[in-house]
Amino acid sequence: MSEATDNISRHTLSWLLLCNIAVLLPLIDKAAVATLGICGICFVWRIGIYFGRVAKPPRWLVTTLAIAAGSTLLLVSREIGMLNALINLLILGYALKYIEMRERRDILAIVLAGYFLIALAFIDKQGISDALLSLLVCAINTATLLSVYRGQQAWLLQGRQALILMLQSLPLAVALFVILPRLSPLWLVPQSKSATTGLSDQLRIGDITQLTRSQALAFRVTFDGKAPAAPQRYWRAMVLSDYDGQTWQQAADVRDINWYRPYAIKEALAPTTGATLNYTVIAERSSQHWLFALDRATSSTRAVKNLTDYRLVALKPVEQQFQYQVQSQLDAALDDPLSASTLRENLAIPQDRNPQTLALAQQLKAQYPEPRQRLAAMMQLFNQQPFYYTLSPQPLGQNQLDDFLFSTRQGFCVHYASAFTMLARASGLPARIVAGYQGGIYNASAGYMSVYQYMAHAWAEVWLDGQGWVRYDPTAMIAPERIEQGFDSLFSPEESYLADASFSAIRNSSWFNALRQQFANLDYYWTVWVLGFNEQRQQQLLAKLLGEVTPLRIALFMISVITIVLLVIAWSTGLLRLPSRQSVVDRHFNAVAKASAKAGIKRELAMGPMDFTALLQHHWPQYHAQLDDWNNCYLQLKYQSLSTNELKAITLKFTNKSKEIIKIISRDPAAN
Amino acid sequence: MLKQWFNRWLNQRIPAAEQQTLSHRSIFILPSGFGLLWIMLVVLLFLFGTNYQNNLVIGMALLLASIFVSTILHSYRNLAGLTVISAGTAHTYAGQQLSIPLKLSAERPLFQLQLSFQPENPLRVAEVTAEPQQRVVALQTDHRGRLNPGRLRIESRYPLGLCRVWSWLDLNTHHIVFPTHARGQQPLSRLDDDMGSTGKQLSGVEEYAGLRNYIPGESLKQVAWKQWAQERGMLSKEFTTPAGEPVWLTLAANLNQQQLEQQLSLLCYQVDELAKQPNQYWGLALGPLRIAPNQGQAHRLQCLTALACYQQERL
After folding, report:
1. Average pLDDT of span B18-25
2. Residue A418 resides in a domain
3. Does A360 touch chain B (CB under 8 A)?
4. Residues A562, A489 within the same domain
5. Is A454 contained in some domain?
6. pLDDT score at B56
7. What ipTM was assigned to the predicted interfaces of this complex?
8. Which residue has the higher pLDDT, B5 or A445?
9. Which residues 1-20 in chain B show a CB within 8 A of chain A?
10. Where's the Transglutaminase-like domain (chain A) (predicted)?
């Protein structure tokens, strides 16, 4: 094919410079350092080539680099995950092809790889803004391709044309998106490892980085009935009962669940009858199995398992928005009888640590033999003694809890929950820490509740005879005046969080909040209707659109969409108005020619206006002067540069003359 | 067999005409190789999106798919409305390239067209507008004769290279390929008896006649460099042929095919040589065909055409 040997135009090269950056930028957090380095070198080298400073790299160099990079990635693929390794490999291939390109074929390969890389960025960036940005990057990539086939044309025009092409194609894409059946995954695919979440399956008191201040969304909830009151919004995610003096972990049997043999997981019983709350949770990507629910919760969603401690887990790590139904009994205690091993676990105390704490527990036990009173006294401890809430507490020593309870007295939820749980255990009450989220911002207009990462929280549950596990939140006991920093996860998380941030004046203004609300709603609809568009929503939407979902109606719908789209494109490119695109001047000139043809005097195709006038004058000699006038007008309009006013006047004159002449020609017979 | 049937169908669908405007009747469209790769990418992305249950990736796959659909129309639009007019007959000598003139215009601007009679000699046109432009398409010739260039292939891959739109136009033209020049020293043949006494056998073609002032633009080959070196100014050598007597160029009888072609090539060269000389009249006798002695460009073309087409009817 002769086209393949075409040289690459400078226009295309400029587009490629832009395109390279645009495609790689959204992937920057996925690329390994080495990958980024090679991309940078390739880009700088390309710029050098572009300005004629350096030569193209020899092929052997590129090949060596490619092999070296590929094998390095293979070696580290275990560390960064298979998917990340693949993404890096693709990025490297893209960058190397980029400096190596010589022919049109190479550019086509780069453009195709570019589209694939744009799609890869969607793996964990799925917000509206990400989608819009990707659309722009797509347009840049398309413009690069267009420049290959369009040749020299102004930059802006090419970009505009690519954008128009994409916008023209969007309606059809949307229609296809709506009607195409949603398939379940066809085979197992590698997943990437990283995700930000406010929760961790290990809590360490000494390690404050565990506490995220991220404003990112954790999950959203839509309630079938009324949303629960604020004090009830304790979203349980994990139960941590294993404490070694440093770290809280889940019980060994939960840690060791084999996710490839999900049937081995023990399931909780469905809630007994009583007042229940039904709701739907859309969890954001966390790359973890844990899910969120209130109190005594069970779920009937297929991919969700109900653990015996009334927590929900997903059978597969949550890699994109995951939606599940939950049924909760809010005030029902979690009252399954404790097995001997569970009891042992929840009474375990690390040996030879925290003597002061243990002594305090014994003292309280003696003072308050009744468990409930003892617990109330422990809670009061945090209120009456000078405990401070801070996100940056002083470091603690070997005896963490002793240091916290008796010397530093400052910390965040994990400190309080740990101390409380240990006190309870030491006084003979089974207790554990629950990690999850506390709070939730209810959006009344759209009817959903948002829970953000900064609402991550830890509290305690204590086993009481006859009542089961009862929730205690010692952090809530701290006196308000002793809160040093953002009281993130308590009571009114939104206000306290925002007060902490800058621009508080703007943030407090009503229009800003209204705007923010609107964006939040938009994001909610985006999540539900675009990202979470599944079979069920598809049926819902199709039923709304078509009335009744039959293959015939779907076919008709598709055909009409395609027809409309194609008609719009045809019209916009000028295909639909072929005959009427002549200028006024041409139209009148042609009308005269047509009239004379009717009268038997045909204008040859190659005949210019002068010759044609002469021909007319030959056949209608009596109108010689008139035809001269007409011809002069035509020549002026066609070949002279005129001012706007002149143009108007002469066009008018020409139009009138043309009409006169047509009248004359059709009235008077032609002379020989 | 299949080709014949296809040609017959093509002749019915796009009949030959000197002026043609492309429309849906004459435009063909198929995905290009790149277009097929594009479709593979769409499928790949769709699978990728399905396996990761990622609606945005699926959406992107569908967007690329519908871009493909849109470009079908855009590609079609880039040929529809193109008017191609055959702008006359072209001549050349066998073995050289024939430059076939065409006039191109279109109501709406069209971009990046490729016109070719032979795939190895394409003409690239960056833009066709309402203003007619004359362009030539090259055609490599190999033997003399009246040449039907076949169908002109007009192709475009605009805007994204996903679709190949093309048309085959028969512009209903014939072009003349003269025999190749062959320098010959020996006289070709004697004058036939029935030519009468008006003819004269061709001997020396050029004879030195004297010097005259050099006219700017004249060939430097004719400058009298010796006189110029003697500082007598720039002079041209003038050659004349003994005027008046017309010469006849004739073809020997009973030649085999190879000899015939050789002879025709010699005659072709001599016609051109004679045409260069002012005041030289010549005639041409090719078998039964007689072209009366005359001079000038038109006469030269007539003779060369006769040489080109001699015994070519079967081709």
Report:
1. 87
2. yes
3. no
4. no
5. no
6. 92
7. 0.77
8. B5
9. 19
10. 405-476
